[in-house]
Amino acid sequence: MAKQGTLLVVDDNRNILTSLQYLLVDYFGQILTLDSPVTIPTVLAQNGVDIVLLDMNFSSGINNGNEGLYWLKEIRRLRPQAAVVLFTAYADIDLAVRGIKDGAADFIVKPWNNDKLIQTLLDVYRKVCNGRKEKKRAMLVSEGNDTTMYWGNSAAIRPLRALVEKVSTTDANILITGENGTGKDMLAREIHRLSNRKDGPMVVVDMGAITESLFESELFGHVKGSFTDAHADRIGRFEAADGGTLFLDEIANLPYYLQAKLLTAIQKRSFIKVGSNLPQPTNIRLICATNRDLDEMVRKGEFREDLLYRINTIHLHIPSLRERKEDILPLARMFLERYAKQYGRTSGTFAPDAAARLLAYPWYGNIRELQHTIEKAVILADDGELRAESLQLADMAERENASGTEEKTEMAFHTLDEMERTMIQQAIGQCDGNLSQAAAKLGVTRQTLYNKMKRYGL
């Protein structure tokens, strides 16, 4: 079987430590040994320990086994994701039972049976792995049809595809830029799929949706009792993404004073949970995305230059849909087929006037706007062929006219939602993508603006 996992054995008998190393070397990827529990905190801080095989009595024992119970509680506090198996003499089985009640995963009696000891440790390791998978599953990106990457074959997209295929197999940090709706999140998923970490988790963090006061808890996790509502230990996104990819979407929305905390975690490749004092190592591949000009933000003092260097090892820019017109109709046909199947409609085609309208439209909302347009058209269409009027797109000349004047309220809006969507687009454009300024201009909070952008697909 393949060796995996890290085992820490703590026992004051060095002969036992040597024997266990020889016995278990074929089963665990790393075996650490200590003949004294004093350095347990240091070892836990420096290594990703999965199981601790802990002796209950040491030469400096505190009251017949109580030292073992003390260190059991300390290990559970310092590294709650690690399992503890107690190592005890036959006469101390009652003490081991107390340890089980205090959180130990199992116990092994000395003198031990080799086969039983190996099986016990492997069973505990399997439970540790399954428990982590369950915790991570709630944070993982759902892999459905909506996340399928469509590259297209336009001249604007081919160089990007070649670069992605070259860098995906590395662990280099990647910054993805592009206008809203160009598919930055789908590109991040594609990079993960092509990477050597594809069998690991991919965890997405929407930086614009995280409350500033909970930033550290969301990213790094917290321990029970660290603040008023911390009723239980909680893993953060860095820990959930361990062994896989962490995708920080809308990285430009992270307030300046919090950027230093993120930078520290990236530089040290470790993090500290809220309420804890010990750093925890992390093994992630970092991908960030934004529609903002981070270089300009650095010049304005809105984004840390050292953080930009850390996340920008490889820069990938997705061209707008206006720059890749050859891909508009293939994308539209893909969405048409998808939503016809989803809503039980006949998988139709685009009439010539509909195809012409799709090509002539400026698509300021890019692929996301195209996708929503086709979905709405499929829902409202009466037959298999979609005509231009089914798309409900404003004439391009009218749209450009409207974008060039401040009097957008004179446009012939069909609904209040359309008017609100246009006003939000206008405010964001006038503020060069700065959501805080746009929110102030619209008279709403930044969180409200962000929620409305999500609602309208902006």
Description:
The chain folds into 4 domains: 6-137, 3-Layer(aba) Sandwich (Rossmann fold), CATH 3.40.50.2300; 150-319, P-loop containing nucleotide triphosphate hydrolases (Rossmann fold), CATH 3.40.50; 329-393, Orthogonal Bundle (Helicase, Ruva Protein, domain 3), CATH 1.10.8.60; 404-458, Orthogonal Bundle (Arc Repressor Mutant, subunit A). The protein is 45% helix and 14% strand. It is built from 20 helices and 16 strands. The chain has a 5-stranded parallel β-sheet, with helices on both faces. The protein is elongated. The model is unreliable at 141-146 and 396-412 (pLDDT under 50). Residues 150-379 form the Sigma-54 factor interaction domain.
List keywords for this structure.
Sigma_54_int; Rossmann fold; Helicase, Ruva Protein, domain 3; transcription; Sigma-54 dependent transcriptional regulator; five-stranded parallel β-sheet; 20 helices; alpha/beta; transcription regulation; HTH_Fis; single chain; 458 residues
